[in-house]
Design brief:
Number of helices: 4
Protein name: Protein translocase subunit SecE
Function: Essential subunit of the Sec protein translocation channel SecYEG. Clamps together the 2 halves of SecY. May contact the channel plug during translocation.
Number of strands: 0
Strand content: under 5%
Largest sheet: none
Family: Belongs to the SecE/SEC61-gamma family.
Helix content: over 70%
Distance between the termini: 63 Å
Shape: elongated
GO molecular function, one term: protein transmembrane transporter activity
Order of helices and strands: HHHH
Organism: Serpentinimonas maccroryi
Structural class: mainly alpha
Number of domains: 2
């Protein structure tokens, strides 16, 4: 049996980039609260700058590039999907609702029957 190989190679530079990205995001949050006396515009600018800088550093690291590749592959797969026509979608939705109603009625009847047998016939409580 062949075992699939999982590639988990991570260089020190990528770890440093991830650490820098996290530090920049945390610095943006810290600046938001530290600059509260400067006004809302300065606070939000510092927060957005820190988050944007952290995102840029993350996306130039190997995990960031893998995330971008995953997103591109997912988008390509979504383009291959053959979506049902409106009539088919409505018809299948109606089937699902009808099935739910039938199952609900079955469960209600089964519960009522079991309750009647247990409480009325066996225990005589009602």
């Amino acid at each position: 049996m062949a075992s699939p190989e999982v590639e988990t190679v991570s260089s020190g530079a990528d770890k440093a980039k991830l650490g820098a990205a996290a530090a920049l995001a945390v610095a943006g949050f810290a600046a938001f609260f530290w600059l509260e006396t400067q006004g809302a515009w300065v606070q939000w600018a510092a927060l957005l700058f820190g988050l944007a800088a952290g995102a840029v550093v993350f996306f130039i690291s190997e995990p960031g590039r893998q995330l971008i590749g995953y997103g591109q592959d997912s988008w390509r797969e979504t383009q291959k999907v053959v979506w049902p026509a409106r009539r088919e979608a409505i018809q299948m939705t109606a089937y699902v609702f009808a099935f739910v109603v039938v199952i609900a009625l079955f469960l209600w009847l089964a519960d009522s029957l079991i309750s009647w047998v247990l409480y009325d016939l066996i225990l005589g409580w009602r």
